[in-house]
Amino acid sequence: MIGVRLLQANYARWEPAHGGFNFQHPWKQYLKIGALTRNCAYCIEALNSCINSENQALVIIDERLSETCQKVSSSSSRILKELATSINTMTRSSKLDIWLDEMNCSIQELQNYMKSLSGLIHEPEAKSFENEKKEAVVLTINDVDVLEIMPLITFASLLIEIAGRVEQVVDAVEELANLAEFKDAAVDKTKQNQLNRSVPCYEENLKTLEKV
Q1: Which of 86, 81, 57 is nearest to 69 (CA)?
Q2: Alpha-carbon distance values, 139 to 78, 132, 144 (Å)
Q3: What CA–CA distances, in Å, run from 121 to 44, 148, 211?
Q4: Which locations, inside or outside the cell, does it occupy (predicted)?
Q5: Which are the contacts of 15, defined by CB distance < 8 A and separation ≥ 6?
Q6: pLDDT in tens, 95-135
Q7: Is 18 helix (H, G, I), strand (E, B) or coil?
Q8: Burial class of residue 147, CB neighbours in 10 A (0-12, 13-18, 19+)
């Protein structure tokens, strides 16, 4: 299926100019966007495998992260849908800035929380050679804690990686919009006012860091 899509994109540049597609339409940029989107999809598939894994994170820790993770997932999916609409209609979106800001704020909250997890992981106590020999095969309590937290760390890392790859797709679509001269979308005054009045999330992040 991917090979067919690539062939279609390569052959498209040989079509006569029609509609909004001029002779110098940047068809190669679609290939770049497709490659970046697939990279994002691979990471989402890895996240899905992590969610369905038998090694689940601690329920208490997972509940603390639930709201932040939902924000990241929601904003990322909305951004990808908006990019698809932008490409199909060949218009610039007036909502991306708002959702990108929401996603980046949520990612910052997630990173701050991951830093706080360092307080839950303690270095194993020093052991004498005899004790180390006797307990060579036995996991310490701290080792078990690390193993329990590891799925959570993997999950959060994948979310952060997905957000980074989504931003790469945004940049590629923005480049396409400039090259293909996308039209400006009608500005939603309500959304624009929300963007202008939105308080930067950095103050909240600083408060979170102080608690860590």
Answers
A1: 57
A2: 44, 11, 7
A3: 28, 11, 17
A4: Membrane
A5: 21
A6: 899 999 999 999 999 898 888 776 655 544 555 555 554 44
A7: strand
A8: exposed
